[in-house]
Amino acid sequence: MTSQKHDFAAAAIRIEDVAPTLRLSLRVKPAHRETLGRALGLDLPTRVGTRAAANGTEALCLGPDEWLIVAPEGTDPAAPARAAYAQAPHSLVDISDREITLRLSGPAVLDVLASCCPRNIAAMPVGSAVRTVFDSATVILWRDGPTDFRMDIWRSFVPHVCALLAQVQDEVMADL
To answer: Which domain of life is it from (predicted)?
Structure first.
């Protein structure tokens, strides 16, 4: 995918494609979480919505036994996890091709996101991430800064989400 920047009306929100990354869906019983975390080289967070990072790899807790692992493309965090399988049985599935990530930033980003998302986006702490919906599309929303977000979107929903972002951007700018 080519990197694109879409500067909408006076940069109220900037939308950029993020370079492809390795995405792994991890399921492991809580009793084996620490062992597998050591194998992956990071502490797997225990509270839903919290993140951990080490050596360019991020882990997001999506449920009591479910994590999303994001790593730079070309790395293989699955190799040490395979080696730990006997001590920590788990499911680790590559879902990299399923999703596209957009970076959303700018002074109107909270308004734009809140327009199609039932969560209180402003209350999300910086450094957190959540699985939620944007209109009818299931997304993962990462808050990287006060007005800096990443949104992981299933590939088939990207045109729909981008069209909504553009429409809402126009509406927000009309209200300013």
So the answer is: Bacteria
Pick left, alpha or beta for residue 127 (phi over 0 → left; psi -120 to 50 → alpha; otherwise beta).
Answer: left
CATH number at residue 82: 3.30.70.1520
Q: Is 3 helix (H, G, I), strand (E, B) or coil?
A: coil
Provide the CATH number for the domain around residue 148.
3.30.1360.120
Name the residue among 100, 99, 114 with its Cα closest to residue 13.
Answer: 114
Question: For residue 91, what is the DSSP state?
Answer: E
CA 49 to chain centre: 10
What's the DSSP call for residue 55? T
Residues 43 and 107 in one domain: no
Find, among 163, 151, 147, 162, the residue nearest to 101 by Cα.
151
**Alpha-helical regions (H) of the chain:** 33-40, 78-83, 109-116, 158-175
Global confidence as pTM: 0.86
Q: Residue 8's pLDDT is what?
A: 43
Look at residue 65 and tell me whether its pLDDT is greater than 50.
yes
Calpha distance 69→3 (Å, rounded): 22
